Amino acid sequence: MDDKYKKLTNEVGAPIADNENSITAGARGPVVMQDVWLMEKMAHFNREVIPERRMHAKGWGAHGNFKVTHDISQYTKAKVLQLDAETDVFIRFSTVAGERGAADCERDIRGVAVKFYTEEGNWDLVGNNTPTFFLRDVHNFPGLNRAVKRDPRTGRRSPQNNWDFWTLLPESFHQRTIVMSDRGIPASFRKMHFYGEHTFSFYNEANERVWCKFHFRTEQGIENLTNEEAAAINATNREYMGEDLFEAIENGDFPRWKLYVQVMTEEQARNHYENPFDITKVWSQKEFPLIEVGVLELNKNPENYFAEVEQAAFTPAHVVPGIGFSPDKFLQGRLFSYGDAQRYRLGVNHNQIPINRAKVDVNEFHRDGFMRVDGNYGRTPAYTPNSDGYWTAQPEYLAPPLEIEGAVWNYDPKDDPTDDNFRAGGKLWRLLKEDKKELLIQNTANDIAPVTENIKYRHAVHCYLADEEYGRRITEAMGLSLEKVIELSKLSNDDLIERTLTAKM
Ligand code: HEM
């Protein structure tokens, strides 16, 4: 043990003589106010719990590095993505719906947030283990969380709320199919792919932009759990996935993922058959092949869970020159939410916490605020512009301008004639082998069993619209009438919702 940990002091370094016996007035008398060490100890203890993340509350982290093995400089000038560049990373894996104490092996998507400590500042890629998402407008995000989390009356999780919400948003269909498939319960964080999901952008030295998507593909092989396997694990070990990650790294079995990108030119995006900025859609890998970039390896466990994993703060707003955003309106909404949530969860100066601090000089000149612990830039001027040349912007890093046309308006993507919410889910169904198809049907029937019929019909209709066989088999498994599903499938989305409202069925 390090000698510095041997002798107990109070929080300002004075020696503590007794850490067992309160100071009392007489051997059997009450505690006195002057037991200031007791007050300090209890007051600190009373404040130790910080707010959990609004979603993705349960998570596990690890350190590692990322190495670029292929040249993609024609697309991006980001130094972190130049050939042979090596960059330290910190990664946090999570479940989404469960609270901080939830069991690891629940059916859910898994979050994967990567912080790259690049020489041009931190780049955070905050993704999931699915290439798509349930929603495409930020307006629906609070609803999703309330529907998958606890019912306001019972305080319990509610499949009824969950499926009601999902089925009222047909764009969630593809993601619903993925979550109900074998991929809904990964056996290990090490054994799953993960994705940036959104369309992002790259720009190169000549300031030419392309659109891109990020794919991390596991080198450990994919492995998932059945409902029965997961239930047995959750009954005895709620920290199964955290333990698996920690032990693998501790034993030198370092997990690796290869990073690939898909790239679409601005011209291709203008002519694409569906909205390339809609996160509920995916880009075909045949049309936009995966381009290999590099290898991510995790090789060091955190020394302290709270300091590193709980206090880690990731945000899609943190990009570096050469990597940018896109018109994806869901991404645009996220750009605000994360920093805002972290200012509440960790405080306005959370980027000074060591796990979040960039490994390059930070010259942002924000001042003051709770828990400012870095000297606050001393005597340097706190205003800009100033005559001394402090804090000057760097226009050489301006991203290329983006031409946009159209009126400012509340556009509903369902009014877009190219919008097809069932194509991707149907394609996925047809790609599945028979045993995976059967698992998807059984998982869905099991999950949706406690839900009312009107909602089951909505889901069955969506499956039918995606693929006739998928619709027929799910209808049978849920014990519904195929005739009615076929009749309902001829309605518009609005009419389907109208016909399947609780009062109508
Ligand atoms: C508009 C939609 C979304 C909003 C408003 C939103 C908001 C948030 C917020 C507020 C947090 C907690 C942040 C914190 O306290 O540190 C969070 C966590 C997270 N979100 Fe989202 N989110 C959205 C969509 C997504 C999508 C599409 C993905 C994946 C592509 C995603 C992945 C994650 C992950 C991985 C975390 C956990 C990060 C960590 O490990 O600390 N979110 N989200």
Structure overview:
The chain has 505 residues and is of the alpha+beta class. The protein folds into three domains: 1-48, Cytochrome C Oxidase, Chain J; 59-135 and 185-352, Beta Barrel (Catalase HpII,  Chain A, domain 1), CATH 2.40.180; 421-504, no CATH class. Helices cover 30% and strands 15% of the residues. It contains 15 helices and ten strands. It has helices at 36-46, 141-148, 159-168, 173-180, 227-236, 240-250, 266-271, 305-310, 329-345, 423-431, 434-448, 453-466, 468-477, 482-488, 493-499, and strands at residues 59-68, 86-95, 110-118, 121-128, 194-195, 200-203, 209-218, 256-265, 291-300, 323-324. Strands 1, 2, 3, 4, 5, 6, 7, 8, 9 and 10 form a ten-stranded antiparallel β-sheet that branches. Strand 6 and strand 7 form a beta hairpin. The longest helix is centred in the last third of the chain and has 17 residues, at 329-345. The model has no long low-confidence stretch (mean pLDDT 97). Residues 53-56, 59, 92, 94, 111-113, 126-128, 133, 138, 141, 197, 312-314, 330, 333-334, 337-338, 341-342, 345 line the site of protoporphyrin IX containing FE.
Helix content: 25-40%
Chemical compounds bound to the protein:
protoporphyrin IX containing FE
So, CATH architecture of the largest domain?
Beta Barrel
Using DSSP, what is the number of strands?
A: 10
Order of helices and strands: HEEEEHHHEEEHHEHEHEHHHHHHH
Q: What is the count of helical runs?
A: 15
Beta-strand content bin: 5-15%
- Please state the overall shape, judged from the principal axes of the Cα atoms: globular
CATH topology of the largest domain: Catalase HpII,  Chain A, domain 1
CATH class of the largest domain: Mainly Beta
Overall number of domains: 3
Note the gap between the termini: 69 Å
Q: What does the average pLDDT come to? A: 97
- Rg on CA atoms, Å: 26 Å
Structural class: alpha+beta
| Weakly predicted, low-confidence segments | none
Largest sheet: 10 strands, antiparallel
The fourth-level CATH homologous superfamily of the largest domain is Catalase core domain
